Prior knowledge:
By secondary structure, this protein is an alpha/beta fold. The protein has 2 domains: about 10-245 and about 420-430, Glycogen Phosphorylase B (Rossmann fold, 3-Layer(aba) Sandwich); about 250-410, Glycogen Phosphorylase B (Rossmann fold, 3-Layer(aba) Sandwich), CATH 3.40.50. Helices cover about 40% and strands about 15% of the residues. It has 16 helices and 13 strands. It has helices at about 10-20, 45-60, 75-80, 95-105, 110-115, 120-135, 150-155, 180-200, 230-235, 255-260, 280-300, 330-340, 350-355, 370-385, 395-410, 420-430; strands at about 35-40, 65-70, 85, 140-145, 165-170, 210, 240, 270-275, 300-305, 325, 340-345, 360-365, 385-390. The relative contact order is 0.13.
Amino acid sequence: MHARFPAWFNATMRDFLANHFGTYKPVRSKMNGAKRALYLSSPIGLGHARRDLAVARELRKLHPDLQVDWLAQDPVTRFLDANDESIHPASRLLANESAHIEEECGEHDLHAFQAIRNMDEILIKNFMVFQEVLEERKYDLVIADEAWDVDHYWHEHPEMKQAQIAWLTDFVGWVPFEENGAREAYLTADYNAEMIEHVEGQPGVRDRAIFVGGPEDIINRSFGEGLPRMRDWIPEHYDFSDYIIGQHPSAFGTRDDLRAELGYDDGRLTCIVSVGGSGVGATLIRRILAAYPKAKARLPDLRMIVVTGPRLDPAAFDVPDGVEMRSFVPNLDRHLAACDLALVQGGLTTCMELAAAGTPFLYFPLRNHFEQNFHVSSRLERYNAGRKMIYAESDPDRIAEAMVEELRAPRSPLPVARDGAARAARMLSELL
């Protein structure tokens, strides 16, 4: 069986971390008898952070004295800091996964499976930081939102487990692209087989496994040749929270009131472009900027707001008249709920926020990104939400045409759950 990461842990690794990455001074709790949770939120996109914060807030309603410490990376730490969350000081020792993902990218292309395979050193280092955090302080619960390193290593070495752990994910199963050949099909099946072996062979490692969605959101595929079908295996090993949204648009008030609050009620059509928290979306932004004058020629009242995210400089783009460039928009989900059209990359969180709001949108999955092209796309099809665009086939003329079509004939998505965060919190509460 293929080993995802090298399986060695010893004093040399600990010395390496101390010598090359410094040390941190643990902050001891002054709360007598209070429960304490360590929250790990995946840094690959800010969607995890928004949903994790929603879960943490719901969990505090059930346990008002709960202290939540976050072990997280930039840009998640910026988001958490802005929301007055407690960031563990060891967070500064973590190797940055977002930077690695950007290095693996081509032009609107991320071979996500291969990028994970190339993260061995980063994941080993971050796991050791995590392990030392638990050795310094007792936690009642670890909440791991797609913290692949922790889940893998604790299954490989269950004797290293030092706290209860709840595992959260919105997809289960690596999926190959047919055009990438037999080698990729073999490797993804091998990784899936290893995961199945871990879960079935060490059922006590995960104290709770939560699938962020429902059974109908599982794609209708097998894990690989000779392996079970996803829709058969996953319900046997996961509980379902339904979708978790940071803040459901129903909490924003009426759409008219929200548009007035944000200045979108001036008779113009407002289009928002958002490509996530990494630098991967630069080429997509440039292509959309080229499409804007073509769309505006047919819709004179069209304006566009481009949110580049923290890792792209708005000044690096040639901007046509009528386009506003912003690096950051507070409460972006409110703007997505109020605008007339959105153009986004293909991350699940943003797309589901748009679906919940009923906002028309185009989404451009990254080439070779199996999660966006299979797991996310399948879910959006079920919700009748968004129009999937193939980047390689979408020149500025095609993008402009699709923008006009979606504005003139918007879809009616299925309702998105309002209480996913509360459901997940109730499941976590049982461990406290």
